[in-house]
């Protein structure tokens, strides 16, 4: 007879059941429980009790008794006016806290919205095309084993053959941005460096880049037509009608403008100034070919980006297989090739193989934005609940005079909403102010255009979300005081809010520690990339493509070497900082059937390796002798990938060039640290090496540039002299990472400042509440350090808990981020120790300022205060 | 004949309250229903019906004395109101009128 009904069931009933029904239901259930227990035993009775409690989860039992009086004046204009009036008075009365709250909220909202705008811009890439869900980019995966990789450019014929033979493919577009011409002229104006794009006429119909001038049915009436963007047309012809105008390219060919398209939206991955018919490109490339290759049968040249419009609902893998069959039918030895299709909107945020690219950063920033907003909300909730004790009497008086709970709830919601609208207003202003800096930091061109509904979505959702998150709890708490207890001063004993507040502070500082350690680790990784031994010397080297000067390389070189600042001159066909070319046409003794090794070939002269101080590990460098044309130098990775033992003297074949390996160089980084070092090969072919590298001593650089420029004019009179320093090119490789790093640091700092602001307010409040206690303690002999300790102890404890929670989370998150780098630092314990110490120091600094202020007050003053 | 609509279950509950007279409260009504009709009724269904009937004005209630077997909680005791009584009588009148109008061949014989 001693058993009781299950506690959880009774508790549940108490929670959900309407108070005016509770007693009878409890009674009835208990009575039945006792009887069941007597007849059937306690376990049945307990089960039956729980079942019956659950069966009361019905509307009639859930619905609270409605009072007859409430609804009449809850939303009356007079009351609403009163809500605002009280809210406003309260804001003014507590200026210090209002200021802290508003600063935190304004900063949080502004930064949160800025980040979310960035995110929204990233996510919107390429989504503006009507047929976006049907357009795919064709990619090919080539190579075997470790040298497997994905190319986003394909052979030319696959587009036409695919469209003809595969019924699911409705449309195809090829794009190639070769540089056939470098200098365009119209009357006396000339432009170099145009982004010329050769494409099929379907480009203008498949994508939403329709002609606004010209004949849409025939964008390119002939092979010498050009379609340009509005901006380009303006550059050439000013306000004159562009259609029909003739421009000359490199002085040998002329093009007639046949159409104009709108400028490309900022969030388009496809861009260009000039659009020329791809048939023109083919005519030039395949003119006078002796190997019988035409654009319709050349399965060797992978240089066309191909887009397909695919029937909705068709499996891309099956389609890719069909395309592979077509390819193999035409070129049976490409057995290592498979086709892949990537959806158009994924191009921007995912890598070619479908793994995460930019989306990682997007996700990271969404999380940071949310963290910042949550921190700002926590500030508000913490401060207003902490200060609720001070308002207990006000609430009680209101209740006694007849305020309904709902009215009080509304009053506090209005108070929060008022503060929020002020902050939101300020935040939007702040955003507008910060926009130019932010754009510079983020490399975007965001504008706050309030006629754009997208902006409103972001702004509205952010403000509504934060308002909702931070208004309800304080309002509920404040309106729930029981007047009798509150007036007797018994509210402060509510342990649960203190715990809740502590949890919030811990959450805030957990975020802070995560952000600090993230900043540290990102910074360290970026430093590591920058300072890692590259395996070659890129300092003080400028480089440019020689054009017609290439034929006079030796003369130019000897003239340059006479200059005081020049330390060396060499040539190659690609820039060592990022070698673009790659081929699988290799052969060597011991190659397995069906195996392919992708290798990056570089045409060089005999000076190249010493010029860049690349270490020769085995064998020797080129000498410049005639026999060098059949000599190769491989890097270590290539030797390893090809499994060649004692490589020097072994046979090797690159394209149709058969020869021997005369040397092996130590690996060097010729691409971003995000990717592993790949096999590469040097071959001796100075005439193909059209890029000049000049090493200066570092002192006389301007003079060297001037001399180079003069020599340039001598051979390329028509063209402007453009050069790059390798350091600059190198930095460009890491622009995105650098940017992410900077943004992360900025955001983390802001988040930390906001959470400190909250802590500051909280400590100020604690000190204020305990004024008299501190006074009494001082009178009884407490020292100033003792009192500071007393006030700081609680908060320090919370920060310590936060550190313990944050470290594993940060560890995991940063490990994920680092996985994106092939060469990375290892995460070490001191990074977290430092982050924790920093967080602790910041918290202590914030806390101690207020604590000291409270501790040094003369007790006479604080005790007299009432 | 205007009257507010009563569901079958509500009608039975209302009748049971009348049967129990003084001691009609949740548990007793449930037990009585079980005994008289032989159908297992859940206590929550009875409460819901009582609540609805009270809203319709067919029942009135007051809280009784606290008893030990209920853990010191009071019972809510129900009694039928004038409206409830009128409704029950109306229903009965309709039924009887209908029974009276059935010809002997109208219903297949049921052997009891």
Automatic annotation (TrEMBL), chain B:
Q: Which InterPro entries match?
A: Tscrpt_reg_PadR_N (IPR005149), WH-like_DNA-bd_sf (IPR036388), WH_DNA-bd_sf (IPR036390)
Q: What is this protein called?
A: PadR family transcriptional regulator
Outline the extent of the Transcription regulator PadR N-terminal domain. 19-89
From which organism does this entry originate?
A: Larkinella rosea
Gene3D superfamilies xrefs? Winged helix-like DNA-binding domain superfamily/Winged helix DNA-binding domain
Any Pfam family matching the protein:
PadR
Domain of life, per UniProt, equals: Bacteria
């Amino acid at each position: 007879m001693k058993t009781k009904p299950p506690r959880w069931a009774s508790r549940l009933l108490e929670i959900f059941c309407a108070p005016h029904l509770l007693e009878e239901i409890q009674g009835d259930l208990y009575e039945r429980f006792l009887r069941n227990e007597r007849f059937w035993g306690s376990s049945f009775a307990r089960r039956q009790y729980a079942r019956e409690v659950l069966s009361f989860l019905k509307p009639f039992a859930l619905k609270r008794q409605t009072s007859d009086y409430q609804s009449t004046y809850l939303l009356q204009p007079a009351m609403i006016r009163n809500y605002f009036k009280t809210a406003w008075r309260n804001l003014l009365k507590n200026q210090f806290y209002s200021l802290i709250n508003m600063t935190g909220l304004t900063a949080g909202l502004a930064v949160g919205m800025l980040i979310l705008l960035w995110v929204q811009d990233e996510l919107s890439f390429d989504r503006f095309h009507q047929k976006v869900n049907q357009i795919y980019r064709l990619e090919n995966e080539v190579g075997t084993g470790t040298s497997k990789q994905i190319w986003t450019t394909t052979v030319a014929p696959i587009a036409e053959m695919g469209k003809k033979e595969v019924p699911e493919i409705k449309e195809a577009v090829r794009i190639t941005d070769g540089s056939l011409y470098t200098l365009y002229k119209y009357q006396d104006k000339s432009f170099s460096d145009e982004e010329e794009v050769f494409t099929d006429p379907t480009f203008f119909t498949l994508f939403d880049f329709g002609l606004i001038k010209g004949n849409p049915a025939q964008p390119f009436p002939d092979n010498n037509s050009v379609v340009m963007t509005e901006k380009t047309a303006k550059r050439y012809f000013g306000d004159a009608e562009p259609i029909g105008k003739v421009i000359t390219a490199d002085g040998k060919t002329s093009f007639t403008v046949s159409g104009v398209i709108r400028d490309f939206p900022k969030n388009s991955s496809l861009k260009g100034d000039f659009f020329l018919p791809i048939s023109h490109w083919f005519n030039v490339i395949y003119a006078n070919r002796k190997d019988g290759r035409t654009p319709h049968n050349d399965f060797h040249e992978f240089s066309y980006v191909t887009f397909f419009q695919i029937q909705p609902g068709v499996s891309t893998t099956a389609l890719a297989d069909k395309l592979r069959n077509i390819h193999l039918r035409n070129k049976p030895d490409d057995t290592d090739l498979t086709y892949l299709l990537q959806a158009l909107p994924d191009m921007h945020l995912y890598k070619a193989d479908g793994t995460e690219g930019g989306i990682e950063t997007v996700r990271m920033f969404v999380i940071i934005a949310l963290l910042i907003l949550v921190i700002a909300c926590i500030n508000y909730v913490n401060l207003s609940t902490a200060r609720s004790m001070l308002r207990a009497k006000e609430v009680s008086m209101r209740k006694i005079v007849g305020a309904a709970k709902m009215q009080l709830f509304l009053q506090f919601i209005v108070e929060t909403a008022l503060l929020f609208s002020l902050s939101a207003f300020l935040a939007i202003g702040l955003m507008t102010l910060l926009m130019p800096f932010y754009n510079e930091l983020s490399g975007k061109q965001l504008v706050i255009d309030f006629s754009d509904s997208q902006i409103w979505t972001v702004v509205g959702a952010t403000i509504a979300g934060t308002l909702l998150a931070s208004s309800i709890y304080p309002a509920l708490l404040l309106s729930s005081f029981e007047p009798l207890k509150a007036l007797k001063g018994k509210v402060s004993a509510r342990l649960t809010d203190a715990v809740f507040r502590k949890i919030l502070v811990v959450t805030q500082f957990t975020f802070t520690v995560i952000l600090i350690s993230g900043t540290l680790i990102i910074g360290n990784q970026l430093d590591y990339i920058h300072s890692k031994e590259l395996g070659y010397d890129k300092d003080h080297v400028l480089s440019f493509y020689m054009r017609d000067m290439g034929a006079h390389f030796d003369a130019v070189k000897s003239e340059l070497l006479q200059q005081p600042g020049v330390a060396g001159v060499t040539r190659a066909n690609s820039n060592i900082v990022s070698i673009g070319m790659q081929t699988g046409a290799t052969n060597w003794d011991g190659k397995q059937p069906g195996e392919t090794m992708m290798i990056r070939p570089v045409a060089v002269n005999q000076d190249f390796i010493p010029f860049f101080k690349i270490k020769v590990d085995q064998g020797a460098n080129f000498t410049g002798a005639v026999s060098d044309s059949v000599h190769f130098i491989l890097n270590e990775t290539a030797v390893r990938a090809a499994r060649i033992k004692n490589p020097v003297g072994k046979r090797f074949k690159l394209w149709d060039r058969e020869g021997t390996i005369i040397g092996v160089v130590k690996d060097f980084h010729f691409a971003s640290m995000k990717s592993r070092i790949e096999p590469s090969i040097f071959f001796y072919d100075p005439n193909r090496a059209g890029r000049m590298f000049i090493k200066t001593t570092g002192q006389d650089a301007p003079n060297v540039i001037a001399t180079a420029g003069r020599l340039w004019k001598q051979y390329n009179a028509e063209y402007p002299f453009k050069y790059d320093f390798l350091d600059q090119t190198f930095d460009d490789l890491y622009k995105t990472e650098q940017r992410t790093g900077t943004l992360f640091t900025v955001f983390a700092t802001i988040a930390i400042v906001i959470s400190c602001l909250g802590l500051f307010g909280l400590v100020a409040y604690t000190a204020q509440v305990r004024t008299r206690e501190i006074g009494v303690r001082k009178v009884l002999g407490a020292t100033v350090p003792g009192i500071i300790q007393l006030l700081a102890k609680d908060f320090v404890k919370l920060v310590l808990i936060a550190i313990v929670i944050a470290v594993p989370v940060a560890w995991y998150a940063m490990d994920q981020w680092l996985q994106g780098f092939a060469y990375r630092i290892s995460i070490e314990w001191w990074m977290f120790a430092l982050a924790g110490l920093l967080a602790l120091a910041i918290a202590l600094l914030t806390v101690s300022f207020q604590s000291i202020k409270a501790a040094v007050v003369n007790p006479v003053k604080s005790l007299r205060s009432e | 004949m205007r009257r507010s609509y009563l569901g079958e279950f509500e009608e039975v509950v209302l009748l049971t309250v009348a049967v129990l007279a003084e001691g009609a409260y949740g548990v007793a009504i449930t037990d009585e229903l079980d005994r008289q009709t032989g159908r297992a009724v859940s206590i929550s269904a009875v409460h819901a019906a009582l609540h609805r009937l009270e809203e319709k004005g067919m029942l009135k209630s007051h809280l009784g004395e606290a008893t030990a077997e209920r853990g010191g909680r009071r019972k809510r005791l129900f009694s039928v109101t004038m409206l409830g009584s009128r409704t029950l009588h109306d229903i009965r009148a309709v039924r009887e009128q209908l029974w009276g109008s059935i010809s002997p061949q109208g219903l297949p014989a049921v052997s009891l």
